[in-house]
Design goal:
By secondary structure, the chain is mainly alpha-helical. 64% of the residues lie in helices and 4% in strands. The protein is built from 9 helices and 2 strands. The longest helix is centred in the middle third of the chain and has 26 residues. The two termini are 32 Å apart.
Length: 205
């Protein structure tokens, strides 16, 4: 387990992240309880990080908890419904999440160096070359596969098998070899209905 430089400061930052996400007006049910959507997502990110990489750095642990922070404040509908609009939305989200997390970390007492490190991870800067960014990306994709892929499929009944294979392959491409191994190790719960599609997509990927 990675040593936390100041456990009280770390706890303050997590509490601030969670309080911010608890304001989410969107609700989601899990385990017989209703949660603010982004708070549930943040908890799932931390839980997956502990499963997949319990020795992750303090920066990664903070970034995982804040990766979607207050996402509802930047809706997709605020951007043109075009591929270019989608990319602009994603880019805007990365900056919004990073800046929001950085501001809360400052409140918790973190220095500029650690804040910038976490913002780099949340902003997905250096994917494939910054190990901390890559580790968070693996956690993001594992959480998507275990908790959200099936629901996403239900929202897209018109998608062809080829479209789904493309989506899964693009997700797979973003992951590290360690992420790939963990995804098919039996240590995450694959959405049963999509297992044949997932296995078909990743064979030879």
């Amino acid at each position: 387990m990675t040593t936390i430089s100041d456990p009280q400061r770390f706890a303050r930052a997590i509490a601030l992240f969670d309080a911010a996400n608890a304001e989410d007006p969107n609700q989601e049910s899990a385990d017989g309880k209703t949660w603010p959507k982004e708070l549930l997502y943040a908890m799932r990110m931390s839980e997956m990080q502990q499963r997949f990489a319990p020795d992750a750095s303090e920066a990664v642990r903070l970034a995982c908890r804040a990766q979607h922070i207050q996402r509802w404040k930047t809706p997709r509908s605020a951007y043109p419904m075009t591929p270019e609009g989608y990319q602009a939305w994603r880019t805007g989200l990365y900056k919004f999440h990073a800046d929001t997390a950085g501001s809360l970390m400052q409140q918790a007492g973190y220095d500029d160096e650690m804040i910038e490190r976490v913002k780099k991870v949340i902003g997905k800067r250096g994917l494939k070359v910054n190990p901390e960014t890559q580790l968070m990306e693996d956690v993001v994709d594992l959480v998507f596969i275990e908790h959200y892929m099936l629901g996403f499929a239900g929202q897209k009944p018109d998608y062809s098998e080829e479209k789904w294979l493309d989506i899964i392959r693009k997700t797979w491409k973003k992951m590290s070899e360690a992420g790939h191994a963990f995804a098919v190790s039996g240590k995450i719960k694959l959405p049963e209905a999509l297992v044949p599609l997932i296995l078909k997509a990743v064979q030879g990927a």
